[in-house]
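Throughout our pipeline, every protein is held as a single compact record rather than as scattered files. Such a record has a labelled line for the sequence and another for the backbone structure tokens. This encoding replaces a full spatial description with a residue-level series of whole-number codes. For reference, a complete record is included directly beneath this paragraph.
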Amino acid sequence: MTRVFISISVLLLILYSNMYGQPFNDNKTNAFEITDINNWCSADAAFTTMNATADETAGSCWVNGPNHNVWFKFQATTPYVTVKVKTGSSQGSAQYLMTALWDNAGNERACAVYISNTSDITMSCENIIPGEWYYISVDNRAGTSYRGTFTLCVTDSVDYDYQLSAIELSDLDNWCSGDGAYTTMWATGDKQKGTCWVNGPNYNRWFKFQATTSTITIDVKTGGSQGSAQYLMAALWDNAGYELACAVYTSNTSDLTLSSVDLIPGEWYYIAVDNRAGTSYRGSFTLCLDATVDYDYKMA
């Protein structure tokens, strides 16, 4: 009975804090500890920036701040982490969210900022040290009306923002993804840029496939229902990092095509898709693959 009473009392204190006082994790020293980072998510709208005060420093990508930031901490279990902060509908009422990842010495390791008032945000890092402690700060843009609740998710892996977690494409027979299935939003620069690219890597995403023939054609599509990304760039690499093909935009919403006749069946190959530097150019795109080439080659 005593244990139940204490648990209820702690819960009531947290609820009271969220409604009437500063959040319990308002300061870094009182960061909420996340003990399980294997695909962990909080309950919907479990945390809040309401009544929070500024603490420590702003993330390098933040619009301003710190304003109303709250804190979380975890002990790394792998070299990788992905953090998602969600809002809107049942997931929260906070607007214009911003977040950053810090090591124990206060060095920033990752940063993410809103693209709209209720957009979710994602950040990831691939070189943290297992056993070390890391801190997450969540804030919103200056303005008391933007404060509110949010949902937090943390996992000890990274997504196709990095080559090591490239999405595997197993169907090379005239295959296409769903319209706008992939995005450069929240991505970071990884590995090298394509030789024909204007700049980068900026926000590149990664895919991989195992060759079934010596030929491949890759189409990256945007515009209309196929995507919102602008100024797309793409490149094809072998497993050793040698570039086999490269393509770059001709206009802000032009599709891309790249192909090769030099693949080795059974070997693995990587596709990087990026867009020109500029956060407003990030967005969704459609990807298509076919294990043949078109009349760009004499053989076809």
Summary: The first helix runs from residue 2 to 20. The longest strand covers residues 133-140. Residues 1-13 have pLDDT under 50 and may be disordered.
